[in-house]
Amino acid sequence: MTDSKYFTTTKKGEIFELKAELNSDKKEKKKEAVKKVIASMTVGKDVSALFPDVVNCMQTDNLELKKLVYLYLMNYAKSQPDMAIMAVNTFVKDCEDPNPLIRALAVRTMGCIRVDKITEYLCEPLRKCLKDEDPYVRKTAAVCVAKLHDINAQLVEDQGFLDTLKDLISDSNPMVVANAVAALSEIAESHPNSNLLDLNPQTINKLLTALNECTEWGQIFILDCLANYTPRDDRESQSICERVTPRLSHANSAVVLSAVKVLMKFMEMLPKDLDYYGTLLKKLAPPLVTLLSAEPELQYVALRNINLIVQRRPEILKHEMKVFFVKYNDPIYVKLEKLDIMIRLASQANIAQVLAELKEYATEVDVDFVRKAVRAIGRCAIKVEQSAERCVSTLLDLIQTKVNYVVQEAIVVIKDIFRKYPNKYESVIATLCENLDSLDEPEARAAMIWIVGEYAERIDNADELLESFLEGFHDESTQVQLQLLTGIVKLFLKKPTETQELVQQVLSLATQDSDNPDLRDRGYIYWRLLSTDPVAAKEVVLAEKPLISEETDLIEPTLLEELICHIGTLASVYHKPPSAFVEGSRGVQHKRLPGSAGSGESVDSPDTGSAAGVSEAPPAVIPSQGDLLGDLLNLDLTPPTTTGPPPPTSGMQMGAMDLLGGGLDSLLGGDLGGNPAMAAGFGAPPAVMPTSFNAPVSGGLDDLFDLGGGVGMPMGSYSPPKTVWLPAMKAKGLEISGTFARRSGVIQMEMTLTNKAMSVMTDFAIQFNRNSFGLAPAGPLQVLTPLSPNQSIEVSLPLNTVGPVMKMEPLNNLQVAVKNNIDVFYFSCQYPISMLFVEDGKMERQVFLATWKDIPNDNESQFQIKDCHLSSDAASNKLQGSNIFTIAKRTVEGQDMLYQSIKLTNGIWVLAELRVQAGNPNYTVSLKCRAPEVSQSVFQSYEAVLKN
Amino acid sequence: MIHSLFLVNASGDIFLEKHWKSVVSRSVCDYFFEAQERATEPENVPPVIPTPHHYLISVLRHRIYFVAVIQSEVPPLFVIEFLHRVVDTFQDYFGVCTEAAIKDNVVVVYELLEEMLDNGFPLATESNILKELIKPPTILRTMVNTITGSTNVGEQLPTGQLSVVPWRRTGVKYTNNEAYFDVVEEIDAIIDKSGSTITAEIQGVIDACVKLTGMPDLTLSFMNPRLLDDVSFHPCVRFKRWEAERILSFIPPDGNFRLLSYHVSSQNLVAIPVYVKHNITFREGSSQGRFDLTLGPKQTMGKAVESVLVSSQLPRGVLNANLNPSQGTYTFDPVTKMLSWDVGKINPQKLPSLKGTMSLQAGASKPDENPTINIQFKIQQMAISGLKVNRLDMYGEKYKPFKGIKYMTKAGKFQVRT
Q1: Three-state SS for B343?
Q2: Apex CA A824: angle with CA A820 and CA A828, to 5°?
Q3: Within-domain flag for B397
Q4: Are B140 and B203 within one domain?
Q5: Which ranges of A245-366 would DSSP assign to H, the alpha helix?
Q6: In contact, B133 and B153? CB cutoff 8 Å
Q7: What is the rounded distance in angstroms from the CA atom of residue A299 to the CA atom of residue A338?
Q8: What residue in A sits closest to B43 (Cα-Cα)?
Q9: How far is A628 from B246, CA to CA, in rounded Å?
Q10: Contact status, residue B204 vs residue B184, Cβ threshold 8 Å
């Protein structure tokens, strides 16, 4: 008897029958019915209609039935929240059950029901279970906190579960410790700056103790957590390494790789002359090799990681070349990775072996693999100079096979070899020329043309060869056309007498008959060069080319360092920093290798040198770009003492992080450069916004508020008048003007969209680039009806501040992309920082005093507000409307001092002292903040609020 | 952590899904199907596939893809290891892990998955513990359950769950106490044209079947422990003792488990137990090719080489093969071009050979790839690395158990290039 019977259905009303069975009196029948329901559910059938009937079966002492009902509940509670409430009582009761298995099951299941109403009831049972006497219940409850956090993060924080969870790290049971670490790590992922996993030598010691006794999965969590710790000195580092090393012999490959990560990271701190350092290096090789005998999927991930490890520390695997030799029935993804590592490990000592292997691979069946093998031979030639000659002769052998794609691939790499070792192997050109006719791929054709052009003086019939390509000039791909143009010009400069006709022909083809702007431009440039100053032309076109670099394929050292800290993760598989692709982890912190202890070593290895510099700062994890930002987000970090301007985001990282961002940057950048008028319009230098604040005309709304302010009523926060953000001429007829406002605690982006084009616009959508405060649309852009020509529509877009964070310049700059059925448009605008002042920004007096003293005087900045004719009370009232709260007022010698506090959405406090002297229209504001970067923007807000 | 799991069969249908957090639409698998379509062979589907909002990590076993969906940064190896564990568990429970077996036991499968993962965190993956929580289906139990109305879900908290030895349940009782160990070594090797070894390594495992009453504490020592410099242990092995004395000391799980796996790399000399003499040639302009293969034993320490199976993927241009085996049978599949020869046992006095001709497409040029020959074999009663168990002792219990050690050498990926 099997479960497949549950899938057989009768024609008339399956649901109806099940309903009857579920309500049957017989226990056995009931259970069978629930099983049928579950079976339907697994194959994706909708059985949610049976909800009340299934829930009725929950009150049972039969554990299997209970579990089955729970399974059902978890799946459907979301769609039937009101019904799910019915189950709450049973859950709460089960949490008191004498059997720990039932207690754990109840709390576990409750956490899986993602319905707000249920989570409210969950808090009390969960609190009890976190302190349960049975460790099995405690460890289940630990995970439940993570679940609850996923549903309602605020609730978890309010209820103090995070602290309880932190306490569990010191639990006596290793399994509980492991689960607490896992739960905390998961929670920390969505709170990059909260100091949840506060690692100090004591906790580290506890984790290391638990490491030996918990399950393999727990070991992974603990090791990954350990990897985030930065030891104080090399001795601590060594002792951790010693205690982690046994994990290298674990049967679970994920444990092994996580241990490798910890060791690779902490090794950085060990002095290289230490005996232990050498021992550790030796210990790392065998487990890595062992990973390669596992299942192919594991091998793949292992190989991607080994690729990083051999770049960082080639000495670990330098004797293990042979394990990377390809077996012919390896899956293709394993083959390609092995090939890559073989090249990285290639050295003078083993090059003969490697070449023999590569040559073998070049005769295999799989075309992709063969191509890569041929390319690998070329890369070896470039990497190991002594082997170049051997490589070239191997390539020539391969060309003799006449296998079409092998020949083409070989010619492409020979071109690279020529560029690395000029004037050395040109004797082979004759052989290459023999194969001219068989080349049908653009890359190979272009490579061949480059060779002919470059060495035209040595090829007797170079003109004939190039001429033969010219016949089908228009059918060639751009790559070949460009190369042909350059090749013929080179030929002309070398042999001007015979080739005048040819060069004229190609120039006219390129400039007159081609639609390709690149080709045309290059053609014109050559033409003018040749016609005005042939000597200069020679200098330009035949200039000595820089040698191609040895390892163009190496990962950039800073990225490599970061990736080493992420061994075993997705980042290491993709060779990209996590921030580039992990969704939902906002402001992922960039990890860096710790610097080595011996300062003298930074000399012989430049990349550890840079790491050592960074490691002087105290925080465990150092954000790579903009320490400023780190500070903005986390007041606990000590304020930067030596922060220069934050390094510009590297183009590559940006592009990878966010396609939109890349597009925005380049587009805006282009506009700014090309069109200064435009830049003033929306390129947004810092001066633009204040001028619009100062505009004497203000909207009727603001006037109303002004009146209100006069009577002393609390009023809405200040909102600047709308300005044009995106002019119609820039956006194919779509004009956007807008402003920001804060209404009952919600930031609104208010826009007027005007269609100035001839056609109807639909399908509007909006997206923001990362910005300083994580502003992001809280919902889609609500433009429901199509926008007909000449029509305008007012849209109000609520924003939240949980988006990805990146420091912008200026701080309140916001880059926006708007899409409609026509295209995507980019613009940037600035929001008044007062939008971010939150309603609960009133500080306690005592706290204010303490904080004021606590913030160093360096962080204080003073500003003047001119021409303001309000009394101090009116000013205070007005400011309060924008969530700038007056805490105290003091009058000294006719001068009113207002002490005020502001809290930003990201938790930064700004303290202010406003001095108003009767009869003097100039106010003085002193701002103190742990993140002084915001002061300037805050001051602008003060000015704007007070003057409107 | 792991969000969801989809099981996909060879024809690209999702036949089971399970979600541990919110439900992820099965349309996410479309990205997987795309990759599946692109791959020429089923095993060439890349194990990690990015989609706009999720990552798909998959393993292929028993012609079923196990596709896990993850949303945040999770160690992929952790996911892959877990998926393999799921497959092992299914196999353990249902004997085979096929689509039919999973569908037949869908409720047990669901119960198991729920028990193995909580919110994406592994909960119980040790087969010993799972079996206490959910009893494997047997015909007898199903019948008994139907009659008595009892269930196959355990009512008690699994004892091993929290003890210091989570892998062993308490209260184990046997009338016959026995402990058997199998030392199985696989040789992975690449032999080049001329017969010299390019790479050779040994992947060894010691699989145990321990059925002992109570809480036995075992020690296993080797004659030549120095061979084992690269080992992975079952969590039960006390690492410190191994480091210090090179003795395996452990409280074993109940039943079948893998005590350790080890790796003897090419630096240590690995003996190659068979040799192949081959002559596979094609002549330009002729539509015939010669095929000549002879196998022989070497370095087998007098043990017989058995269950020999030779297979080779012949070039695409080969239409048919007309061969004559001196022993065993051969087949040639004209569609896949796969030649396989079931040799059986190698008799050192009369070496097995396979000779004859291959016919090529008329007028086609000579194939440019050289076929690789894959060889499988078994040698009983020998571990090719020379590893030998010295003695097995038991402490902590009074009775005397039966003990047994078996050795075997097999070919892993053993390839000869021509």
Answers
A1: strand
A2: 115
A3: yes
A4: no
A5: 253-267, 275-291, 296-312, 332-345, 351-361
A6: yes
A7: 10
A8: A331
A9: 54
A10: yes
Please list the alpha-helical segments (H only) found in A533-636: 534-541, 557-565, 570-574, 606-614, 627-633
CB A286 to CB B229 under 8 A?
yes
- pTM score: 0.67
Same domain, B35 and B139: yes
Note whether B118 contacts A1, CB cutoff 8 Å: no
- The conformation of residue A638, written as its DSSP 8-state character, comes to P
Domain hosting residue B19, numbered range = 1-146
Contact criterion met (CB < 8 Å) for B73 and A582? yes
Q: Which amino acid is at A321?
A: M
d(CA A227, CA A221) in angstroms, rounded, equals 10
Give, for B114, the enclosing helix (H) or strand (E).
Answer: helix B106-116
At which residue do the structure tokens 């952790």 appear?
Answer: B78
Range of the domain at A942: 836-947
| Interface ipTM | 0.80
**Could you tell me if B395 and B252 lie in one domain?**
yes
Q: Decide which of A408, A423, A440 is a domain's last residue.
A: A440
Going across the sheet that includes A723-726, the strands are A723-726, A734-743, A746-755, A792-800, A776-777
Say which amino acid occupies A461: N
Which chain B residue's Cα is nearest to A61? B155
Q: pLDDT tens digit string along A511-528?
A: 888 888 888 899 998 888
Domain C-terminal end among A243, A263, A278: A243
Q: Which residues contact A574 (CB under 8 A, 6 or more apart)?
A: A580, A581, B50
Under 8 Å between Cβ of B354 and B280: no
**CA separation for the pair A102, A62 (Å, rounded):** 11
pLDDT 10s digits, A211-270? 888 888 989 999 998 988 888 888 888 999 999 998 898 889 999 999 999 999 998 888
Cis peptide before A780 (omega within 30 of 0): no
A256: chain B residues, CB-CB within 8 Å: 232
Average pLDDT, whole number, for chain B?
A: 85
Domain total in chain B: 3
Residue A766 and residue A738 in contact, taking contact as beta carbons nearer than 8 Å: no
Regarding whether A776 and A733 lie in a shared domain, the answer is yes
Q: Are A88 and A121 in contact (CB under 8 A)?
A: yes
Whether residues A77 and A199 share a domain: the answer is yes
Kindly give the interhelix angle for A116-130 and A81-94, rounded to the nearest 10 degrees: 10
Q: Which of A38, A258, A293 sits opposite B107 (nearest CB)?
A: A38
